[in-house]
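User: what does the whole thing look like in 3D?
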Amino acid sequence: MSLISEKTIERLILYRGLLLQANHESESGIYSHQLGRMAGFTPAQVRRDLMQVGYTGSPARGYDIAKLIQSISALVDPAEKREIALAGIGSIGRAILAYFQGRSSLLEITAAFDTDPEKTDRVIHGCRCYPVDRLSEIILARGIRTGILCVPSGAAQSVTDAFVAGGVRGILNYAPTRLIVPPDVYVENRDMIMAVEKVVYFSGPRTGQRKETG
Amino acid sequence: MSLISEKTIERLILYRGLLLQANHESESGIYSHQLGRMAGFTPAQVRRDLMQVGYTGSPARGYDIAKLIQSISALVDPAEKREIALAGIGSIGRAILAYFQGRSSLLEITAAFDTDPEKTDRVIHGCRCYPVDRLSEIILARGIRTGILCVPSGAAQSVTDAFVAGGVRGILNYAPTRLIVPPDVYVENRDMIMAVEKVVYFSGPRTGQRKETG
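Assistant: Here's the predicted 3D structure for the full assembly of 428 residues, as structure tokens:
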């Protein structure tokens, strides 16, 4: 596999999401300028990205949507069903469990962890919940490599360490803190307060600051 | 005010979040290389960003943390308390209401909207809920300029249009779709499935693809 940057992967995943929607509208072909407009990128950027998945399309009819979805999926999807662990069954953790349930055929949150005995040893939104002190043991036994972190910031680093000890190599971090991880562990930070602060800044009465679309 | 890019604002908000944590640990000064390491940027990038808030620090003692937090806040925070509207009181919407409650003194979600009569005309996590057909009217009357979108993708565009008609100029979009908005409306997209897909890709068995930290 060639070297593909994080930003390219992010755009490819976005294109696929948009194409899956477009697909529902009985269109069979799409041009780079159309996809670019939907995604907020230039047609040249779209063509460069799609060249990386090895699908170039025809100038006359554009890209075949179904084939393009297939090509992107072949690149970005895991070869088989992938289990995901979630730590922190508070309001955000529960919402993610509920939101994920049945939404993806390839990705499934199969183990959730919390310190609160009221929340463990039961099933919440289809997911079995365990005490957090069994985290490393359970994810190691199951070969889980992806974790979603929804614990309070005070617990974020210790749970991260348990994720890493259990073999996790990618963390989606909803805790409002930065995590210290080994160089081969990927972290995507998604703090909600910081996201709102940013949107509030750009929705405020403008005094000349530059605006970009997200 | 000078022109400050979206990426700079995002980094400044991150620095402030990190500094607020560092502040708790009884440190009074911080160097650009320390802040850079915490945030995942170079010391030069940190210094460039902090020059934009007009606070340069002393080479010997680094930046004064309290003053730096103050300087960043003066730039990125609204001048007064800002109301935020939320549409879609499903699992994600409820989680955001719960998470936000009391967490910020300047930002408050003061109106939530849904189509389900079971969820409206009551208070959920401290926030008054209304029928979605009153959205434009209510946010216009209150001067609300920021919206959080948590509705299913099928309703996302129509609720976006109602936000925009009511005067919203910034939208935090948790719906798995791209929104069509006028050029003066800022959108930050936060689809959870795409975020997980990306993290799963980077946590998979590596076959040589480039890895970056998030």
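In plain terms: Residues 206-214 of chain A have pLDDT under 50 and may be disordered. Helices of chain A lie at 6-23, 32-39, 43-52, 65-76, 91-100, 135-142, 153-165, 192-203.
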